[in-house]
Design brief:
The protein is α/β, with parallel strands linked by helices and 310 residues long. The chain has 2 domains: 220 residues, Rossmann fold, CATH 3.40.50; 67 residues, ACT domain (Alpha-Beta Plaits, 2-Layer Sandwich). Helices cover 37% and strands 26% of the residues. It is built from 11 helices and 14 strands. The protein has a 6-stranded mixed β-sheet with strand order 6-7-8-3-9-10, sandwiched between helices. A 4-stranded antiparallel β-sheet has the order 2-1-4-5, with helices on one face. A hairpin with a 2-residue loop joins β12 and β13. It binds adenosine-5'-triphosphate. This is ABC-2 type transport system ATP-binding protein. One of its GO terms (biological process) is response to antibiotic. InterPro entries: AAA+_ATPase, ABC_transporter-like_ATP-bd, ABC_transporter-like_CS, ABC_transporter_ATP-binding, P-loop_NTPase. Keywords: Antibiotic resistance, ATP-binding, Nucleotide-binding, Transport.
Length: 310
């Protein structure tokens, strides 16, 4: 395996009595996108804050671009890019001036700052709007400008904290292709997202955090395979029937779980569908809808986070 660009070992972070991270390890290699998933409060922001040197860990170690995040914080900061939901763009300035300003702050000469700015504006589809005040940009354009700004220093690792939250489908698709290009150019990308579709599409590997621990780690395909190859999705007319169905199916040896209005039953082969239907029928439970689905990342996420972390 290539040497990881981002590497955390046994990270612990406590806030007073709250253990936000409880021994988290992960790694991201050059050219790889790691998707970090977890419910609100799972510890994602805390982890990203430690890796980007905003806060120190209480225990464990982390290295980014070969430097220790605690002992060599300044070196780490020079080698990473960070972009997120909250744009660092100054909306009173034009897109072009924003990038030139950041490039100059990073120490580039006037001419180099211009050249880098032009290249990034072009790459991010912002060349035409470059002279307009950023206040006139759409949400998607602002995110792209923010991401462009975080790449001015040619970072080895990029941290994206929910970069597409609130964007429309077109804005999201545009940002996805930028992330794909970043990875293709050899950047290590750590992406936190609430959109499982986004992780499925972009991430080479996924780490699911639950209550400050790694609940699962692998490619989307590996995580889905861990759930069984198929799932039966059932709808019932009432909550009482949903509860009864969960009980009956568990007694019959299945491992069903509730996902909103749906009851989902992972199965290993299509023939097991008959067993699901027979068990329900024998208890007088009649689903209003039945479908046989390939597991989605949503199913994996629901299954992992409904149980206490291991
Ligand atoms: N500064 C702080 N002081 C006290 N507790 C904190 C602090 N920051 C985070 N926590 C707690 O640590 C836990 C993890 O929080 P964190 O923000 O890392 O989760 P998250 O996965 O990023 O959630 P979200 O998706 O809502 O952003 C939570 O229980 C949170 O309340």
């Amino acid at each position: 395996m290539d040497r990881p660009v981002i590497e955390a070992v046994g990270l612990i972070r406590e806030f007073g009595g709250v253990t936000a991270l409880d021994g988290v390890g992960l790694h991201v290699c050059a050219g790889e996108v790691l998707g970090l998933l977890g419910h609100n409060g799972a510890g994602k922001t805390t982890l990203v804050d430690i890796l980007t040197t905003l806060i120190p860990p209480t225990g464990g170690t982390a290295r980014v671009a070969g430097c220790d995040v605690v002992a060599e914080g300044r070196e780490v900061r020079r080698r990473i890019g960070v972009a997120g939901q909250f744009s660092s763009v100054d909306v009173r300035m034009s897109g072009c001036d924003n990038l030139v300003f950041v490039a100059r702050l990073l120490g580039a000469g006037r001419r180099a700052a211009r050249e880098r700015t032009e290249r990034l504006l072009e790459a991010f589809g912002l060349a035409e709007a470059a002279g307009r005040p950023a206040a006139e940009y759409s949400g998607g354009m602002l995110r792209r400008l923010d991401l462009a700004a975080c790449l001015l220093g040619s970072p080895e690792a990029v941290f994206l904290d929910e970069p597409t939250t609130g964007l429309d489908p077109a804005g999201r698709a545009a940002l996805w292709s930028v992330v794909e290009e970043l990875a293709a150019e050899g950047c290590a990308v750590l992406l936190t997202t609430q959109y499982l579709e986004e992780a499925d599409r972009l991430a080479d590997r996924i780490t699911v955090l639950s209550r400050g621990r790694v609940a699962a780690e692998g490619t989307a395909a590996e995580l889905k395979a861990g759930l069984g190859s198929l799932s039966v999705s059932l709808s019932f007319g009432s909550g009482a029937d949903r509860g009864a169905a969960l009980r009956v199916l568990r007694e019959a040896g299945f491992d069903p779980y509730g996902d909103g209005e749906r009851t989902v039953v992972p199965i290993d082969a299509p023939r097991m569908l008959a067993g699901v239907v027979r068990s329900l029928d024998a208890s007088g439970l009649e689903p209003s809808r039945i479908s046989l689905d390939e597991p989605t990342l949503d199913d994996v996420f629901a299954a992992l986070t409904r149980r206490p972390a291991p």
